[in-house]
Automatic annotation (TrEMBL):
This is FAD/FMN-containing dehydrogenase. The lineage of its organism: Bacteria, Bacillati, Actinomycetota, Actinomycetes, Micromonosporales. Residues 1-25 form the signal peptide. InterPro entries: BBE, FAD-bd_PCMH, FAD-bd_PCMH-like_sf, FAD-bd_PCMH_sub1, FAD-bd_PCMH_sub2, FAD-linked_Oxidoreductase, Oxid_FAD_bind_N, Oxy_OxRdtase_FAD_BS. Keywords: FAD, Flavoprotein, Oxidoreductase, Signal. Its cofactor is FAD.
Length: 479
């Protein structure tokens, strides 16, 4: 086994370039043009390398490998295996899970952002660190769209390995993971393989839904779709009208076609100058719409929602696809947040009442956002190549985010847990793995992300491809 040749002197000089040639020669060099950079705590660049979108759990690994190529990832995993060190992966830090501490090797993929679009095949190939923002831009240049999420700052690979729930096209085409064609992954044995439905069906099954439990993905190929028309945006209602809006929404959502994607969120907007009046400092009920059917049908379909109460702001209109991020207006810069989630089988009258009691205008809950996202359509249908993405029978996701730092952790976590408890009677008992966070890392919670038979298969796969559980710094599949 090779060890990364890291001298303290070289590290203090700003990091070591780990080209394969340099490794084999047994000496790192700061001037090598290519190769991963290796950093330790205290090194210049270490803090930037481990910086994360969620500021509440910053990794503090003993070793950071800033990978530039698949070969860098292979070398880093091989070295960690020799030292029996756990291996984590960081693209953006949108989804912290198990703490990443001194004993760990953290592979960062931010220098691996290549995106190639094959317009003829309608296929994208992205490197491990590609973000949805620039992947979408590249696809749109060819009049194609991927099954991206609500914001461009999320990593394509992490999102897709957890399922990938597009709030624009999921109900039409299913999960992003359903359209993956090939995955390049470095396994616990340090080997780089291209995994497809025919090369290793069980590993292909597990990777799509199992996140980083089976290796570090270096690149991925997936299908793209012609760009449909988009009629979308957000309608903001005063929180005081929350009951009328949510009850209208739960009835309306049963009637809509698969081309209508939507969510409703109770948002506590901060009392800050950057929030325009009349929204500043308010609790609002925010309905998000993405309709990808004929524009001529859009206004009539949305009319019942618009009539639920007098909107504070209504920005739903025909829009270019590139403007999609305005539908959800997710934060675009790093934020401290605590998150919880559940899957709901139904949004009945009682369920809405329970949600309003726990998170509505009269509830003391200090959480920032409580979102109900409509599932169904193609998300409920089995994919062509089966995958570990489970709970396709769920009708809605529940997602709760409390923005605040460690000093507010107690109250935010307690409030979020209270909302999850209040919605328990309508829960499927499952969870959507991409929405799970630091408080859902226990073995019991991780089991909830998968159907029991899927979890059994994932456990067997884990024993086959990662028997020492090297890839455990995640929502970990364990016995
Ligand atoms: C504001 C916001 C909006 C979101 N919107 C959506 C949405 O619309 N739909 C949806 O489905 N999800 C959404 N998510 C959840 C998102 O999909 C997950 O947080 C996802 O894990 C982010 O991946 P990342 O690589 O950006 O994050 P990171 O925190 O860097 O990675 C998270 C995990 O992904 C896995 N991973 C990342 N890269 C690799 C790799 N190269 N190899 C193996 N495993 C890897 C690892 O398990 C890693 O721990 C959203 C999250 C946020 C915070």
């Amino acid at each position: 086994m090779r060890h990364l040749p890291v001298s303290r002197r070289a590290l203090l000089g700003g990091g070591v370039a780990l080209g394969t040639a340099a490794l084999l020669a047994g000496c790192g060099t700061e001037t090598a043009p290519a190769g991963a950079r290796l950093l330790r705590p205290g090194d210049p660049g270490y803090d930037a390398a481990v910086s994360s979108f969620n500021l509440n759990q910053i990794p503090r690994p003993g070793t950071v490998v800033q990978a530039r190529t698949a070969d860098d990832v292979r070398t880093a995993v091989g070295d960690a295996a020799a030292r029996r060190a756990p291996v984590g992966v960081l693209a953006t830090g949108h989804q912290p899970s198990s703490p990443i501490g001194e004993d760990a090797v953290l592979i960062t993929t931010r220098a691996m952002r290549g995106v190639t679009i094959n317009a003829g095949r309608r296929v994208a190939r992205v490197e491990a660190g590609a973000l949805w923002g620039h992947t979408l831009t590249a696809a749109l240049q060819q009049q194609l769209v991927p099954l991206h999420g609500s914001t461009g700052t999320v990593g394509v690979v992490g999102y897709t390995l957890g399922g990938g729930l597009s709030p624009l096209l999921g109900r039409v085409h299913g999960y992003a993971a359903d359209h993956v064609l090939a995955i390049d992954v470095v396994g616990a044995d340090g080997e780089l393989r291209t995994v497809t439905a025919s090369s290793d069906p069980e590993l292909f099954f597990g990777l799509r839904g199992g996140k980083s439990n089976f290796g570090i993905v270096t690149a991925m190929e997936f299908g793209l779709f012609p760009v449909p028309p988009l009629y979308g945006g957000a309608i903001m209602f005063d929180g005081a009208d929350g009951a009328r809006v949510l009850h209208t929404y739960r009835e309306w959502v049963r009637t809509v076609p698969e081309t209508m994607s939507s969510s409703v969120a109770l948002l506590r907007l901060p009392d800050l100058p950057q929030v325009p009046e009349p929204l500043r400092g308010k609790l609002v009920a925010n309905v998000r719409i993405a309709f990808t059917g004929p524009a001529s049908e859009a206004a009539a379909l949305i009319a019942p929602l618009r009539a639920a109460a007098t909107p504070l702001r209504d920005q739903v209109a025909q829009m270019p696809w590139s403007g999609y991020a305005a539908i959800h207006s997710d934060p675009t810069s790093p934020t401290p947040a605590y998150e919880r989630t559940a899957l709901l089988r139904d949004l009945s009258e009682d369920a809405v009442d329970a949600l309003l009691a726990a998170a509505g205008p009269d509830a003391p809950a200090p959480v920032t956002a409580v979102e109900i996202r409509h599932l169904g359509g193609a998300l409920a249908r089995p994919p062509q190549a089966e995958s570990a993405v489970s709970h396709r029978d769920a009708a809605f996701t529940l997602f709760i985010a409390g923005v605040g730092g460690p000093e507010q952790a107690g109250s935010l976590k307690e409030a979020a847990a209270g909302i999850v408890r209040a919605m328990q009677p309508w829960s499927t008992g499952g969870m959507y793995v991409n929405f799970m966070n630091t408080d859902d890392t226990s073995p019991e919670s991780v089991r909830q992300a998968y159907r029991p038979e899927v979890y059994g298969r994932l456990l067997a796969l884990k024993k086959r491809v990662d028997p020492d559980n090297m890839f455990r710094l995640n929502h970990n599949i364990v016995d």
